């Protein structure tokens, strides 16, 4: 199912990226893993392709051919990658998908420019369809993009705050991850002529799927295997991310929770450079405290709760049984994945 | 006319910006000059407002009330300011409209994020109208935005190249300035139901107006009065901009042209920091060579040529005489302005 999304969407995505003026076409091709930093063809990891898969299933959920969802799949993937390019720069992330990030290879200017270009291209791909449905799809995509940006703004501001509530964290993650997955799973249906009620229910599935996805991401951000995730060990702790395991551990109370709060308060007084100088054990002991305070277990349960809520939404809309089964399978994949 | 654009569009623009999640709403309000860096209400310079004025005249050119153009005026202004936020960061510009730029006050992250948010908001403002015309207007705005980004990519790459032809420079400036002015002057008409032919002719006026505007900007970027422009003295020379006066001087041949080429080739070997250490006289002597080689005069003539081409386009579309007179007056203003 993920493979189908990739196979159908990638040629259209590549053709879209080729419209960019040089050197942005090259920079984007590197980001997507199609070429290496020397410009040679590559078959790099271009991501899990969950969003394109959802967009094609979305068209099928509305009783249409999966191909109807292709422009939606491409547009959502372009917006997703626009946000990765900008977020990696803002967060100072040097690695993505086991390779140096764009700002690291081509400089911050290209990361900004190519991100902007992918965002514009996403709207262009949809609007050049010239249909009423395309206008509706673009409106939903725009709303999702605004939420994505709101979520990144919240994420950044939370890194500098001592306390973030679990509710604030969930709101941020809903914006940052839920909104675009919601759009992915409604956009194919909207392009296929589905009404707003159907699109809204599909979005509810996608939103909760996104929260499940993000809860798992937060677990991988602390306890993930760097070989599998392509990120540094303890990457979220290195970046002071107030992710779900952290905020849940801080909210839990008790000895480990209080000890964690003291350590993070002391960390807050350190510069990023000082934090970067910590050795592995320092981060390992923080992770152990988060786990002891129950942050790891709570986040696992939260992933399962969001997974269940996502599945429940599917019962409120008529769709072919095969499509429903695939949406369930995709939700199952999201909570068990290791990368 | 400029005042009317500002008066009608600003309340809608402010309401749009208030939708942004904190702290982006504050950062955007600072950028537009509505508050100062301490958050106190201000009445800063929020730009010349040429684009909103054009969008309202555009609606009138199609025989509609100026108010029909307001969402277009706001959307174009949002895209323009998205590009300013990102360009100032990429170019390292520390001052705009006599105040510190956003990246300087709030940091690069906020400049990236708020730029992204304004871009998304522009599409949102148009698409929530929910009409077929809004879809067409958004498509034109998206095309213009892509050109704007292409132009910035060209501008950046030209700074690192020894030779740029006059044609390349005009293409870059057409993308960077012409495309969005073209969109401003068609968007109100499109929202008012004008056909594509009318919109295309209005865009031709706007495109050449943009090239005239940019030629004047290039003159001001070298010989402008810092008090009036709000920029540093010789600001384009400090940034190695291959602007029209420079490329025209290099293309002219002759003694001053060759001497200039030698100096710029030597400059190219210096770091940005070394160039920043130059004193005023160093830049003044470069400016004098550009003028001696004819780059200043050629650019002045080019502004007049583009102005004439813009006015000619207006003859190909039926519009109220009063609207035509205002479009002519606006073109006249663009070429004589000092800031």
TrEMBL record, chains A, B:
<dbReference type="Pfam" id="PF00348">
    <property type="entry name" value="polyprenyl_synt"/>
</dbReference>
<protein>
    <submittedName>
        <fullName>Polyprenyl synthetase family protein</fullName>
    </submittedName>
</protein>
<keyword id="KW-0460">Magnesium</keyword>
<dbReference type="InterPro" id="IPR008949">
    <property type="entry name" value="Isoprenoid_synthase_dom_sf"/>
</dbReference>
<keyword id="KW-0479">Metal-binding</keyword>
<dbReference type="InterPro" id="IPR000092">
    <property type="entry name" value="Polyprenyl_synt"/>
</dbReference>
<keyword id="KW-0808">Transferase</keyword>
<dbReference type="InterPro" id="IPR033749">
    <property type="entry name" value="Polyprenyl_synt_CS"/>
</dbReference>
<comment type="similarity">
    <text>Belongs to the FPP/GGPP synthase family.</text>
</comment>
